[in-house]
Design a protein that fits this description.
GO terms for molecular function: metallopeptidase activity. It is built from 12 helices and 27 strands. With 539 residues, it is of the alpha+beta class. Strands 8-5-9-11-10-18 form a 6-stranded mixed sheet. Strands 13, 16, 17, 23, 24 and 25 form a 6-stranded mixed sheet that branches. Strands 1-2-3-4 form a 4-stranded antiparallel sheet, with no helix packed on it.
Length: 539
């Protein structure tokens, strides 16, 4: 007999809302039994559970050697290859085998191997490929989608997962075309090659991205004593940090999950890990009321602090509900020696993180709805020199980040590899709109189509988002939200958007429209600020 807690899921609130305690006793038969749906004999336990004075009969039957099961459907872009396996230290390892070692039975099938070629996929095109592959979230077995694509924009992004709208965590992309460097930390046979041309590298990327779809964090943001190292959920840049000329990447990678990740895959409640259910981060920190309440917040972790490097965070002192919020971050070398710093001054790449304390509540982590995984890009800062970037905080993993009035405290942290640097906490007061004009902008800004467009940097397909953004850009050009709407429209129209399953053009490129809305955004703003914001916030 053992004691246990029972947590009850409420589908209306999409969260655990009740808990009670009880006991359970089980006994196991010595002889195996035969079940009609199983091909081999199995074992069964029977017993009794008691909750709130009521007794229930319990039967537990072993139906598989694994704790979970998932079907992964992979699409591969034309002229790219994907076999799902690679040679590693004299043995063949497979995508399914690595997950089976972690207790999850993965069955992978190539669903499409003729996705038309595009040298640079946009946010909208990736989202559309996922949407047209969508399955019902209550389908059995669990299902995930994996795209082996070209590359994301012009960046060196190795993988991506979207988490902007329900159903969440349905799939991810691993990119074939980004190239490895010629560093001696890279195996000689892999130097200068595309990631996809190195089977071990593309396999590791795919394993990592699907891990995110199962709600696993990067170790550096997990407070459960998960060290930054070479296991699967470490970012490629972190793994390269452990490479040497004697043990170069990708041969220094560990093709297994850390014990904590394995425990999460096996024992976390279904809403936390099942694809298509809760948002990325549910069960970590204060997002959701999962039974374990892990509190994966990074702002009190025992990590060495960087000296002579200063991180500054600048937010408006006041704003009103529904207003566009753009925060400026700046990393400054205050010492007298040249220092290496991360160039990833954005929320998407997960090196810069933000903690926010609402008017009433505990600190929560604020994340982008797009999770990009890349190698660690560093730059030298001379004494007195600084780098700056911008992050939009209007619509994030918390949907509307500032959804209630009151005073918020915000702090940023930047991972530099073996050190971190924190900004000083800053306060921001959120008010209700006090005029009719502000109320109109607030109402339009709190429209989910607008919020998602701001977060993605492009208006989603099959929504009236573009029309709503056009209204904001043309009717409220003097507001930050009107300017942001103009930048989103310009960003979207600089290239055509294609549905690669049907080969239909969803949105035509329009140079005149791009120029007109950029000019509109520049009215009253510094051109450098707008271009920097466009680059950093809308990849």
């Amino acid at each position: 007999m053992f004691d246990l807690d029972r947590h009850i899921w409420d589908p209306r609130s999409d969260d655990f809302t009740q808990m009670d305690v009880g006991t359970m006793s089980l006994s196991c038969r010595r002889n195996q039994i035969t079940e009609p749906k199983l091909s081999v004999p199995t074992v069964q336990m029977t017993g009794e559970a008691t909750f709130g004075g009521r007794s229930f009969s319990v039967t537990a039957t072993k139906t598989a050697p694994y704790y979970q099961g998932c079907h992964v459907k992979a699409d591969v872009m034309t002229h790219r290859q994907w076999s799902g396996d690679a040679q590693f230290r004299g043995r063949n390892i497979t995508f399914s085998g690595v997950y089976r070692d972690a207790g999850v039975e993965f069955r992978m099938t190539l669903d499409g191997i003729d996705i038309p070629e595009d040298a640079s996929l946009s946010t909208t095109e990736l989202n559309q490929l996922l949407a047209t592959h969508r399955t019902q979230s209550d389908s059995r077995p669990w299902q995930l989608w994996l795209l082996i694509g070209s590359q994301y924009g012009t960046s060196g992004t190795l993988g991506i997962m979207f988490d902007d709208a329900s159903p969440f965590r349905e799939g991810a992309s691993a990119f074939y075309d980004p190239r490895l460097s010629n560093s001696e930390l890279i195996e000689s046979t892999a130097q200068g090659k595309k990631i996809g041309e190195v089977p071990l590298a593309i396999l590791r990327t795919a394993l990592h991205e699907i891990g995110h779809a199962l709600n696993l964090y990067h170790p550096k943001h997990d407070c459960h004593s998960v060290p930054t190292g070479t296991t699967i959920m470490n970012q490629t840049g972190d793994i390269m940090g452990f490479a040497s000329a004697a043990t170069p990447y990708p041969g220094n990678a560990t093709f297994a999950f850390h014990d904590h990740n394995t425990t999460s895959l096996i024992h976390s409640p279904d809403p936390q890990i099942r694809p298509g259910w809760t948002r990325f981060g549910y069960g970590h920190g204060c997002i959701g009321n999962t039974p374990s309440e892990p509190h994966d917040l990074i702002f009190d972790r025992d990590v060495p602090r960087a000296h002579h490097i200063k991180l500054e965070l600048d937010v408006p002192e006041e704003m009103y509900l529904g207003e566009f919020v753009l925060a400026a971050v700046r990393i400054h070398n205050t010492g007298d020696e040249t220092r290496l710093v991360s160039t990833a001054l954005n929320l998407e790449e997960d090196y810069l993180t933000v903690s926010l304390t609402p008017p009433e509540g505990s600190p929560v982590d604020v994340r982008s709805v797009i999770l990009l995984c890349s190698d660690r890009q560093m730059a030298e800062l001379e004494p007195g020199e600084y780098r700056s970037g911008y992050i939009q905080l209007m619509y994030t993993n918390r949907e509307y980040t500032f959804a209630q009035t009151g005073r918020y405290t915000i702090q940023a942290e930047l991972d530099l590899g073996d050190r971190i640097v924190k900004s000083d906490p800053v306060d921001m007061l959120v008010r209700s709109p006090l005029s009719e004009d502000k109320l109109e902008v607030s109402t339009k800004g709190l429209d989910t189509d607008v919020g998602r467009s701001i977060a993605l940097g492009v208006p989603p397909i099959d929504t009236p988002a573009e029309e709503k953004l056009t209204t904001l850009a043309e009717d409220y050009p003097e507001t930050d939200l009107g300017t942001a709407a103009a930048v989103v429209i310009a960003n979207d129209r600089q290239q055509e958007t294609v549905d690669y399953r049907t080969d239909d053009v969803l949105r035509e490129a329009d140079d005149d429209m791009t120029t007109a809305y950029l000019d509109r955004a520049l009215e009253g703003y510094d051109a450098t600020d707008v271009s920097e914001f466009r680059l950093r916030s809308f990849q």
